[in-house]
Write a structure and sequence with these properties.
alpha/beta, binds nicotinamide-adenine-dinucleotide, two-stranded antiparallel ribbon, 357 residues, Dehydroquinate synthase-like, alpha domain, Rossmann fold, 13 helices
Amino acid sequence: MQKEPVLLNLKSVPHLVGEGILKRAVSHFAGYSKVFVLVDENTERFCLPVFQDKLPDIHFAGLIRTKSGESNKNMQSLSDIYEQLTHFKAGRDSLLINLGGGVITDMGGFAAATFKRGMDFVNVPTTLLGQVDAAIGSKTGVDFKEYKNQVGLFADAKAVIVDIDFLNTLDKRQLRSGFAEMLKYAFIMDVPLWEIMGNRPFDMLDSDLYRMVVRCVSDKIFIVEKDLRESGMRKLLNFGHTVGHALETFFLKADRPVTHGEAVAAGMICATRISARWPDFDCRSPEFIYEMIDRNFSRLVFSEENLPEIMRLMQQDKKTKAGKLHFTLLKKIGNAMQDVVVPEEKVEESLRFYLRN
Ligand SMILES: NC(=O)c1ccc[n+]([C@@H]2O[C@H](COP(=O)([O-])OP(=O)(O)OC[C@H]3O[C@@H](n4cnc5c(N)ncnc54)[C@H](O)[C@@H]3O)[C@@H](O)[C@H]2O)c1
């Protein structure tokens, strides 16, 4: 299968997708007085050498380090990043390259957009989840206390470079985490993507991975272009995320972190269950969705006793307005509806269904 590089524009932000595409992206790092790169310990070890090998002429004025993982996507890490940028005398004419997964692009984007009232940044996502979702669409931020993405802003990267070579060192669990977001695009808007997947588990999709990544990047761009600030259509992307975010926080607090994708996969089962029982919707074959998710993700382990805490966390979510839970539901595969107010009892029923079936 040919892997032709693809250039997609989101407003004026170029998104380059390809195998080895970084080599062709040199111009996006030029013209700055200083270039910095933000890494965590894993992307420093696995991705920085690849970056330097492909673009040996880029000189870094400093390596900005942060600790990996969602538990470090917080104000303390942000403060450490400002500290290092200050130490290296970064200025508004500097560039920050965010080299990593969604934690790095979310936090690095926010740091760059706020440091000295804003310096440029380029996202170079290195996880599948980052490549198909997190690095695209200008949402930046950090978690605050137990609340996900509580502090942040919309800020455009100067460019997003999706080089799938970085995925070679990503472990299976993290690859699958990104696959959950790919499934989301298929469910909410992309029947051809669903057909490419063809009921195969992720492990059997290697030869189609590139094609699927390109579809997902263009799906996300299509939506964000129409609704950057999430006043309407962008909420479609929240499919699985109302329950998913609550579960992600629940497990993080319990010191049993799950990946973003694992939490979203569980959330998609719940949202599908609610959709399947929603009057006037045509989501009549939810078992295809349950089966595809179960083929790729083990069920998360919690009990009915945890439901009050999970429901409480959902109440704190940004998607909850005036105490009402808002969901994206599926009318059928490839067709979703955003902003449906779902009574708490139905959400609890879906969580019980998740635990029992
Ligand atoms: N801004 C958005 O629109 C948006 C959308 C979806 C998700 N997100 C955010 O993204 C975050 C999750 O992102 P993630 O799943 O990429 O997690 P992550 O950034 O924590 O990365 C996962 C792990 O993989 C390691 N890693 C990264 N690249 C690697 C590579 N190439 N080889 C080996 N190891 C590598 C990281 O060090 C980390 O340990 C969450 O905080 C979520 O809220 C943001």
